[in-house]
Specification:
The protein is mainly β. It is built from four helices and 20 strands. It has helices at 2-17, 228-233, 291-306, 353-361, and strands at 33-40, 46-51, 68-73, 76-80, 82-89, 97-107, 118-124, 131-136, 143-155, 158-170, 178-195, 198-204, 210-211, 213-215, 242-244, 252-260, 279-289, 321-322, 324-340, 350-351. A hairpin with a 2-residue loop joins strand 11 (178-195) and strand 12.
Length: 362
């Protein structure tokens, strides 16, 4: 027995002595650029640039050098994007603002993005290959009818309101269409501004939107492709609420969703002081997505789902960027706006912080 134990230990020592840590020489690492940009009609083009993480290297996502980002519309050069200006408050002087140009975010200044047009970006940066990406802005698919129903419910002895929405639309025929359902909320709340001895009371209507969690049992938003993981860990939740027109090609459809405002950043609607003029603005949005944006979002969720799954191969993230990684996608919105409360309300002063800034300058 002792001989066998000594023999096993000896073999083990020989085995581990043959293991050598693989050293990775970063001089031979292929650094590539990562692009992230979703564009839509009527808004500026914003392109965010990062760098990939080489194997066994320390991850530093930001580019160290300025890039040259050129925007094309239908293969016609439109403009060179401007670096985003970063404002840094200088605590040493107490008030001075330092401005620096970003090396990772670039914005268009004069191009009017239009649905139906194709857009391309060409990016040059020292140390990287020239990167290109192209997408087409889809036309919006209009919501032709909209219904909302608020139901008072109880969960664990807690009373809450459930907000149900139904969107009706008609899918265009003879083309592949991709969609996403988004609900955003912004709230106008009481605020006050003190200037010397005067206090200005007002309702702040700066209205910064926040995404609201959406759930649905609608079959068009469920995952119909089951695998072994589905029966053990559950199906993909479709957290981005995306879908194609595979089931509804060219048909009229009523889509039902539930918005969960209790999990959003804002307070519950029951806490809003409607009498004082506070209100909540909700936008229910049917987005028409480019194929690039649809497949990118779908691949992200599939990868997150497959992580550590014993029955699933790793899922690569979709990319339409040549000589790099990432996505350049487009979308169009069809929006329904709902106001909970009364706006405007007689006798109530409504201001934004920009209005306050103008009053302060005066």
């Amino acid at each position: 027995m002792k001989i066998n134990i000594i023999y096993i230990i000896g073999v083990f020592i020989i085995f581990i002595s043959c293991i050598e840590e693989a050293k990775h020489n970063e001089e031979y690492t292929n650094h590539q650029m990562v692009v992230n940009s979703f564009i839509t009609a009527g808004e500026n083009v914003v392109v965010s640039l990062y760098q990939n993480k080489p194997i066994n290297s320390q991850y530093d996502p930001l580019l160290k050098k300025m890039a040259n980002v050129v925007l094309y519309e239908n293969d016609i050069e439109m403009e060179t994007l401007t670096p985003f200006i970063i404002y840094n408050y200088n605590y040493d002087t107490g008030s001075q603002i330092e401005k620096t140009d970003s090396t990772y975010k670039y914005i268009s200044q004069k191009t009017e993005i239009k649905a139906g047009n194709s857009y391309k970006i060409v990016i040059d940066c020292e140390g990287y290959e020239t990167v290109t990406a192209e997408t087409t802005i889809p036309f919006p698919v209009l919501v032709t009818a909209f219904d909302s129903l608020t139901e008072n419910k109880e969960r664990n002895s807690h009373q809450y309101a459930e907000y149900n929405y139904r969107l009706s639309f008609t899918d265009p025929v003879k083309q592949s269409n991709y969609y996403r359902v988004v609900v955003v909320e912004s709230e106008a709340r009481k605020s006050a501004f003190v200037f010397e001895t005067d206090t200005l009371n007002f309702i702040d209507i700066s209205l910064f939107p926040r995404n609201v969690d959406v759930s649905s049992t609608d079959p068009i938003l469920s995952n119909k492709n089951k695998d072994a993981n589905s029966y053990v860990f559950g199906e993909l939740e479709n957290k981005y609420k995306i879908f194609s027109d595979e089931m509804i090609d060219g048909k009229h459809y009523d889509l039902n969703i539930v918005a969960d405002f209790t999990s959003s950043f804002f307070h519950n609607k029951e806490e809003i002081d409607y009498e004082a003029g506070e209100f909540s603005m909700v936008k229910v949005i049917l987005q028409s997505l480019s194929a690039d944006m649809y497949y990118y979002l779908r691949s992200i969720e599939a990868q997150e789902y497959s992580d550590n799954m014993i029955f699933t191969e790793p899922v690569p993230i979709y990319s339409n960027v040549d000589n790099g990684f990432g996505v350049f996608g487009g979308y169009s919105n069809s929006e329904i706006e709902i106001i909970y409360g009364q706006y405007p309300k007689e006798g109530v002063r409504y201001l934004t912080w920009k209005d306050i800034s103008n009053l302060f300058e005066q």
